[in-house]
Design goal:
Radius of gyration: 23 Å
CATH topology: MetI-like fold
CATH class: Mainly Alpha
Strand content: under 5%
Largest sheet: none
Number of helices: 14
Shape: globular
Helix content: over 70%
Distance between the termini: 10 Å
Length: about 300
């Protein structure tokens, strides 16, 4: 449509992708529900860590809409609090990994030469490592032997920080290769050559002239990575190497339910279903953004 802005054009293409819109709505609902976890706990008059041994395995009721678990804790409230942790890990780790990959790919693609060769061989080495076994090994490292402050190591939140750091440290390679390939194509474009002729330095060219043109690719890669990271966090938590109790996450809720799968199957169904819906929604949104932000379509529009 003539006169339509690039943003409006991309939005219109995204809205045509019905599965992407459905995924975005699901993620918005999940995020809003997780954010409202304290309100839900207050409304139900319960606490995610409050045990009631006399109310174990209670069926759904107005006081406990999804029933209670093996310690009498409200399942709905724990799912909402677990969603806060799982979504936080997925989004923050994906953003950190994308930032690291962007820096590596941008430098490698623009500078070229031996630096490009070194960074890409290092990237290939990280890609060659088996992801899940590597994550398991890193998650099992004793932090007290790494020289970290004792207060930090003893903190309840240390497992959360460690998972974010580990996943970001090994999940940047896809973004790095994507950014490098795009940078190699962009550095020969006329606007970059004009900036060089005007005396702009490498840092300014990379940040001001090249990076904005990579934004759409980075956003798509980050969105697709977020779902995979939530799945990885769930796997590590299920193996007992991820988010540690008393902090709830969908992964360790599954871990707690594995021995009760025959007597109380819904304790495993709910977190598993939420993980499934979240990962699929992120993938649908990523596919929709990939179509909406397709550079060839945007260039034809402009």
């Amino acid at each position: 449509m003539r006169g339509e802005s690039v943003f409006a054009f991309a939005r219109r293409r995204f809205l045509r992708h019905r599965l992407a819109v459905a995924g975005a709505v699901c993620l918005a609902v999940l995020a809003a529900a997780a954010a409202a976890a304290p309100l839900a706990a207050a409304a139900l008059g319960t606490d995610p860590e409050m045990a009631d041994l006399l109310g174990r395995f209670a069926p759904p009721s107005p006081e406990h809409p999804l029933g209670t678990d093996d310690l009498g804790r409200d399942v709905l409230v724990r799912l909402l609090y677990g969603g806060r942790i799982s979504l936080f890990v997925g989004l923050v780790a994906a953003v950190c990994a994308a930032a690291l990959g962007t820096v590596v790919g941008l430098i490698a693609g623009y500078r070229g030469g031996w630096l490009d060769a070194f960074l890409m061989r290092f990237t290939d080495g990280v890609i060659a490592l088996p992801a899940l076994p590597l994550l398991i090994v890193l998650a099992a490292v004793d932090l007290s032997k790494l020289g970290l402050p004792a207060g930090l190591v003893a903190s309840e939140d240390i497992s959360l920080y460690r998972i974010v750091a580990i996943v970001a440290a090994v999940g940047w390679t896809t973004v790095a290769r994507l950014v490098r390939a795009s940078t190699l194509a962009l550095r020969a474009r006329p606007f970059v050559l004009a900036a060089q002729a005007q005396g702009a330095g490498p840092l300014r060219i990379m940040v001001v002239h090249i990076l904005p043109n990579l934004a759409s690719s980075i956003v798509v890669a980050t969105t697709l990575a977020a779902g995979n990271i939530i799945l990885l966090e769930s796997v590590l938590s299920f193996l007992g190497l991820g988010i540690q109790p008393p902090i709830p996450s969908w992964g360790n809720l599954l871990t707690n339910a594995q021995e009760l799968v025959w007597s109380a199957p819904m304790l495993a169904v709910w977190p598993g279903l939420l993980i499934f819906v979240t990962v699929v929604s992120f993938n649908f949104v990523g596919d929709g953004l990939q179509d909406a932000l397709d550079p060839r379509a945007l260039e034809r529009h402009t």
